[in-house]
Specification:
By secondary structure, the protein is of the alpha+beta class. 26% of the residues lie in helices and 33% in strands.
């Protein structure tokens, strides 16, 4: 059926060159893919960070004593066009950080509905290519 003669000495060198060329092309393609992934990752280097404070945090504020306190373990949802793009939870000091695509978001705290009115500001803008600071306050109605 087919010619099964042993390979000629010159042909083996050509096969080795073809394999070497394929390996080099594969390495080049993988390198290009890695560079592309890093450059598209730049779009993910944007987001928000900041602090959420409960203010006022006590019914009577005293001079020289802070009237606010960190809103610890507060879950925040970042919504755009009716879709939640991300959520984050504040730490013990009321700090948060979240990576988000650039754009404008509504920010919704996961609290009882009566307290949502006291959350301000309720919008945030994420700049392109960097993280921006955005602090929030939550008035829980204590007076």
């Amino acid at each position: 059926m087919g010619d099964r003669s042993p390979p000629r000495p010159g042909r083996r060198g050509a096969t080795l060159q073809a394999v070497s060329a394929r390996i080099l092309l594969t390495i080049a393609a993988l390198s290009l893919a890695a560079v592309s992934a890093q450059s598209s990752g730049a779009a993910r280097t944007s987001g928000l960070y900041g602090k959420v404070l409960i203010d006022p945090a006590m019914p009577v504020c005293k001079v020289g004593t802070p009237c606010s306190r960190p809103a610890k373990d507060l879950k925040l949802a970042f919504v755009r066009n009716g879709r939640v793009f991300g959520t984050t939870t504040t730490d013990d000091r009321g700090r948060y950080r979240i990576a988000l695509p650039a754009g404008r978001y509504a920010v919704r705290p996961r609290v009882q509905p009566a307290f949502r009115q006291g959350f301000a500001p309720n919008r945030a803008t994420v700049p392109r290519g960097r993280f921006a600071r955005r602090d929030f306050t939550l008035d829980i109605g204590i007076r």
